[in-house]
Amino acid sequence: MDRKYKKQKSGKWCSAVVVVEAAVIVPMAVMMTVLLIIMIFYVHNRCWYQCAAYECAIVGNGRQIISESEGRMQAAMQAEERIRDQVMPGTPPQKAIDSDHSGTSVSFSGQSYPLFGRELVPFTAKADVERVNPEKVLRMRRAALAVKDELGG
């Protein structure tokens, strides 16, 4: 008999290999499950805030926006609403909003899972959306067509 057996209190014999395997495999399986859940929270929060950043930047470039400060204010209000809507665990991120005549830039930076240090699972989501001036674009296209017609093309 080459196997080592150990007698349990109930009177049955079992292999000691099962005890060793259970002592190694079960903690590894639990750790892998916990790491998988943490990764899912991280990816979800990062995707959520990336979409929220684009949404806020588009709102900051809206048609009814008259000035850059109004665009920044609209984007900030949308960002606050998106931060309140987030239901996954994590600390509320810091937001940075910049709006000028060329477009709006919104970024969120924060921590995905609050149990760990800030350096372990930080994320940054940034969106830059250019402001489109339809009148200027149409004038440029019409001018290009006029030049093309004059050249005989």
- Mean pLDDT reading: 79
What spatial form do the alpha-carbon principal axes imply? elongated
Major sheet characteristics? 3 strands, antiparallel
- Percent of residues in helices: 40-55%
Distance between the termini: 95 Å
Beta-strand content bin: 15-25%
Q: Helix segment count?
A: 3
Uncertain residue ranges:
none
What structural class is derived from the secondary structure elements?
alpha+beta
Rounded to an integer, what's the Rg over CA atoms?
29 Å
Total domain count: 1
Q: How many beta-strand segments?
A: 5
Textual characterization of the structure:
- This protein is of the alpha+beta class.
- The protein has one domain (about 15-150).
- It is built from 3 helices and 5 strands, in the order ββααβββα.
- The strands form 2 sheets. A 3-stranded antiparallel β-sheet has the order 3-4-5, covered by helices on one side. Strands 1-2 form a two-stranded antiparallel sheet.
Observed structural traits:
alpha+beta; about 150 residues; two-stranded antiparallel ribbon; single chain; three-stranded antiparallel sheet; 3 helices; about 50% helix
Summarize this, please?
With 153 residues, the chain is an alpha+beta fold. The chain has helices at 16-60, 68-85, 134-150, and strands at 5-7, 13-15, 94-100, 103-111, 122-130.
Task: Reconstruct the topology from this structure.
Blueprint: E1 5-7, E2 13-15, H1 16-60, H2 68-85, E3 94-100, E4 103-111, E5 122-130, H3 134-150
Antiparallel strand pairs: 1-2, 3-4, 4-5
